[in-house]
Here is the input.
Amino acid sequence: MSALFSPRSDALLKLVLGLLVGGAVATIGGLLLYVRTPYGVSQAEQLVQPVQFDHRHHTQDDLIDCRYCHTTAEKAPSAGIPPTETCLACHAQVWNKSPLLDQVRASWFTGKAIPWTRVHKLPDFVYFNHAIHVNKGIGCATCHGRVDQMASIEQAQPLSMGWCITCHQDPAPNLRPLDQITNMKWQPPANQAEVGPKLAKQYDVRARVSCTTCHR
Amino acid sequence: MSSKPATAAVLDPLEPVPVLVGRPDDRALTEALLKPLYAPTTRGWKLLITALAAGTGFWLLSLATTLVVGIGAWGNNIPVAWAFDITNFVWWIGIGHAGTLISAILLLFQQKWRTSINRFAEAMTLFAVAMAGIYPIIHLGRPWFFWWLMPYPATTQLWPNFKSALPWDVFAISTYATVSFLFWYIGLIPDLATLRDTAPTRLKRTIYGLFAFGWRGSARAWQHYRIGYLLMAGLGTPLVVSVHTIVSFDFAISQLPGWHTTIFPPYFVAGAIFSGFAMVVTLMIPARKILGIEDVITMKHLDNMAKVILATGMMVSYGYAMEHFMAWYGGNKYEAFAFINRWTGPYAPVWYMQLFCNVLAPQVFWFPSLRRNLKVLFLVSILVNIGMWAERFIIIAVSLHRDFIPSSWAMYSPTWVDWGLLFGSMCTFGVLFLLFLRFLPVIPIAEVKELRRELDHLDAQAAGHGATGEGTP
Amino acid sequence: MPSLGLPIFGQSPAGAPASPRWRSLAERDGTVDPAAGLYPDGEEPAPEGFSRRSFLQILGASTALATLAACKPPREQVVAYVKRPVGVTPSVASHYASAVSRGGYGVGVVVESHEGRPTKMEGNPGHPASLGGAGLHELATILDLYDPNRLSGVRRHGQPVAWGAFLGELSVMAGVLAQDGGARLRVLAEPTSSPAEADLRARLLARFPRARIDSWGPIADDAAREGTRVAFGRPLDPELRLVGADVVLSLDADFLATEGDHLRHARDFASRRGQPTGINRLYVAEASFTVTGGAADHRLRMRASEVLGFGRAVAAALASGHGLTQLAGLGAPLAGPRGRQATVVAADLARVRGRGLVVAGRRQPAAVHALAAALNEALGNAGATVVYRESALLDPASGPDRLAALAAELRAGQVDTLVITAWNPVYTAPADLDLGALLARVPNVIYLAATDDETARAAGVVVAAAHPLESWGDLRGRDGTASIVQPLLSPLVECVTGLDLLAAFVDQGHLGAWRLVREGWKARAGEAGFDRAWSEWLASGVVTGRSLAPAAPVKAGLDLARVSAALRAAPAPGAGLEAVFAPDDKTLDGRYAGNAWLQELPHPVSKLTWDNAASLSPATAARLGVKTGSQVTLTLRGRSLTAAVLVQPGHADDSVTLPLGYGRSVAGPAGAAVGFNAYALRAAAAPWIDGGLELKATGKSHDLAQTQEHFSMEGRSIALAFDVDKLEAAAHELEEQRGPQPSLLPLVDYGKEEYRWGMSIDLSKCIGCGACTLACQAENNIPVVGKEQVLNSREMHWLRVDRYYQGSEADPETVSQPLACVHCEQAPCEYVCPVNATVHSDEGLNEMVYNRCVGTRYCSNNCAYKVRRFNYLDYHKAVTPQLKMLQNPDVTVRATGVMEKCSYCVHRIEHARIDARVAGVKIGGDTVVSACQQACPAQAIVFGNLNDPTSRVARAQQGERRYDLLHELGTRPRTAYLARLKNPNPELA
Here is the structure.
């Protein structure tokens, strides 16, 4: 009767066992890496919006300040998605025939809102407040990136809890003078290491990491 | 197999019942012990496993209901947020203690009588721990997040709370499960090889062969094997104590009257061994009969286990007494009430049942005749299993249902899902065990052969001339 | 296993209502400018991104999957306004003042609104009937706004009719009716004090001189007005001024919970409790155990029919013993212990002439009210602790007599057209009138109703009624203070107000309530600067200035002869079992039976939910061989029904209390077939107290879902209460219950923090009404779980009001103790949580992080106070899209399998913090107000910053009565209790 197992089968067995163990480890490790990749946190995703609104044009060419449209950024939790009204404040006069704006005009006349696609999405159990950040020296670009260079808005930062916590534990490196909040081109000065803490003291910045700061 | 009585010369007056009846040679042993595996499946076995499989179905249904509906499918409420779920968990984990104790500690103490029953006990341990492991996960409100209890680098930068005993449980139980499995498997390897070499069909030989990891029984292999087995025993020994100690912390670290007690660790460990041995006896009495291995698992084994049950039963009883003493001596009115409530509260009947099963019933084992009476043994072992379940229910649910603020007191009553999770898990346990009986050698053949040689050796010494020897098996 | 469908809100039989594109019918018909900008336009969809409503979308699963990278949640849309309404900042709540009707009188409310969605109703501090406090019904009314079972549009025999077309029909019909002066037209109206409706009724009667308008309120104060009519010659409303009352004798009056301006009463009464100096004393003579009885220093337990006799005994004692001889004609001394009580009470009242008060209850016959008036007059209390006013109601008489008269006309077939704006008369009418059958004889019944009910089934035409938050209107408080009722959103269904309907009969149905109300006030206030005044009234919720202030109290002479005559005419208490009808604390007359919040709220006294029960004393129960939960057959005047029995310690013997407002046959999923319908035993002749009740056990039993089953403290120091004179003696016991406890762990010193939030609850002030529980539920999106879950003690209320009985079971004293998470500084729940889902904030708050919770429930096991609540099931499954609009976007909605508990309204703290930090200032010690504190009519709850020595809470916690619950455990709770002070009369001890 022939042998059950060839001499190679021992090696084979070891290989199989090795693969089983290695595979398990690789899977877990892979997942831990994945959630740290831009793709894992939906960063840099190109999204199609119902109206091809170009922030580059409005901020660079027309030099419109963020707060002209996002009116409540300084005084409310939400920065405010501009109502159709705001668009037509200008576009009733300029480009008032442009087919690009058909949907805006349609919205105005039908009274139906423009269905924008949300880009910066925090979970529903997270209570972010724009006012406190903007008033304590955190600039728009710090979280939203160079909006002035985006054809269509994309998520510039991970927006993960770890990312928030890191800044809340030491906000100094990200602080800027209040008059620079909406300045997209602002770069931290070489001596931010000294300036940051000064600003923190000046604006009485007290970033908290207690859970209820964001979860209520 | 031959059942000629051992010669009077070697009969030890202190050990009237031998651990091995007769002195069958290796071939006879192998044949006898492998017979059940090669014999055609009996009708009884089929009927039994079908019945149990039905129970398993009920268990799966209960599990599914729990996952879909939520914990609300159970009877749990506020204040009784833990009830059958954790009771079952502690009960199964406790049962899972006999295996390692027999295998590891008795091995280190070179107790001969452990040899024939250790695999049996280990298998039981393994399945019991498997059952136990289910509950900590499904009792979660959101079981799909169970992995949050494990330390891993999360993007939330959060870690488990190591102050809580529950993450300790995760480690205690997973370690115990792993070690028990390895210990059981290592023990199996030589016998798997035997099966590979003796199985009737090529398919069976191949399958057994795969799991035998190419064991050839060379002297070198045996040497490594012995060392490995001894190391595993060393590893296993502390676990016997640690696992249930940590399980007891789940309650002891709380401030709830009836939970907040320093004697819990030893008291829980004793209880675990108590119920573990009871379960081994419960399973072994029918098994040895059906498999026709009464000569290998003899009255001696049952007798010893009865003694262990008696001893641990006394320890548990002492635990009860101490709890009450402390409740009185501590002068804490909440603690005192918790124990008065056990005697006089709405759940008093369960408490009396517990006392009868765990304190009174084992006392019969003071009498050798009763220790060796299969009917009595079987009955008492069942009672102890029931009693130990009741004990956990009393500790968990009854302590919770009336605590500090009377306005929050309430009653707990189980739903069909609760019962399904209890009896279903027993059936699943049974199914696994039947499969084990059917496809793996219940008795560690190689070790019994060794045992026989040791016995021959003793006989020879007793008879005044040197040991008869064949080579190593 | 519990059934998993929760009996809260099913879908409306009519299906989902059409999405409203108009504010009022008039506006839809394009006939009126809806005064744009006066209130936010609820029409635009709220920007999704700002709401937390979608937390439910199996958050767990999606998060888990996202982390497992199996897939990603789909991108959601951001919906912006097309045109942002004036005064609305997305993600910032706005508040509007309005008023709701309570028995026809206005109670001022402030409504919180998020992006045009009203989410919470609170008391209006500027309104005399509220003073900032809110009662159960002010708080719960908002739930009815989103009730999926609301009626929509006009239906004739089930067939929908367009409002415009219906208006046309009405004007034709009106023309026909006008021909004989409306001889065959009758209106059965809801009692109201609305000036606008007064104008309208005048116009109506001008056109239909022979028509009649009757008011019907099943729990009206007719006896009180009849009593004052006897005493003073004309019907008047007594107005209590409890602040000045040192000794109060209540003759079966539940003035702290269900009668009169109970919110103001509670505030005034509580203002005299707590301090040993200046503490008042309350005697309550009553049969059934009421909230007021629970607050009493001496609860004189007697059958309701014996109260008159007791009052006369007091009068006799005053006449004989204290020189008030003018009362001799009224008095009739009593023998035995009852007589002794009377003399003691009399002495006490005489001791404090001008600073005492005798109050008669709604249930008592006119004679008792007349007697009370006479006693107050004789003791010099009148004008000091009680004043009298012309009733603000348009129609002071709204009791059974008027209804009986109408019924007679219906029976005689003298009525062609009956317009009903009164709430559900078929259900509430005395059984002997058999109104339901009579309606069938009327060719033309037009009924205005918000939800389908018994009357709607009997009426030919049913017109959907607008919710107060969708209506324009006006109301007067008992003291005459007028408020404008303003809508906060466009109607969610097609509906009209009572004003719209009545106006249709004078061909003004197209004007819309807004114009009717506004024109009326313009006429009263004058053109000049009216618009500005109008806006001010809307903003403040009270009509002020321009000589519109309420009239001064009237000074009327008392006619003792008529009073004594009335007393002699009053019937003597009959033998046998007495039936006492009572408005239920929760469903009132039944109109709130469909309100799931109120159904699940534990009854202030019995802690009963989802039921009413015939309550009787332990002795009587033993005699009749029944116990709590027994099903019995009640027979009265030949009519009988089956009910469940609840044995109520402290109830008068040989007396059975039958709470009205349950047993609705048509009331939506929450209210239908819950409890028994006491109206079925009620007779027009004896609407409140009736003799000769028979009670037989059927042998069956009925599950009563009580949230508290153990009413004894088991000798533990939990809810502490002391007599004033024993406070010094108790100092030691209190001392043991506070102060530092030894600890092996290093204690965190939160004294160094800027803020240390804490709460103090004064058991002396708490009357146990349960408003705090309801306010918490509304504020924190707390789900309703249904009777089955309550029976399994899975109720979700974060804040519960425990009630303990002390003393004999026959006649116990009670203490009520509101208990929510006490925010231990050494919290037992925290160290046992395996995933750090409940932790301490830097300021020492005990935080519960829902999204981190995996649901081991160990925290609840280790919580000594058992204040944590667990989502055993998906309790939000039954929340319809409409009801989601009610949820407070500032508070996360919790998913299945997650633990939750009181957060000290941390969202309010964080709002205040951010506002303060942006403004660069410190949060004031009393700035943050918790929802329970805000609602509490008695101001028993105080919240604030303990590190600010000037804050009210800091000062309260310094008090000598302060103690910590379960202090010996060393949990260091942030919520401290102030022991209850009782002021018993030594002579009655």
Remarks:
- Residues 664 and 672 of chain C are 5 Å apart (CA to CA).
- Residues 163-178 of chain C form the longest helix (16 residues).
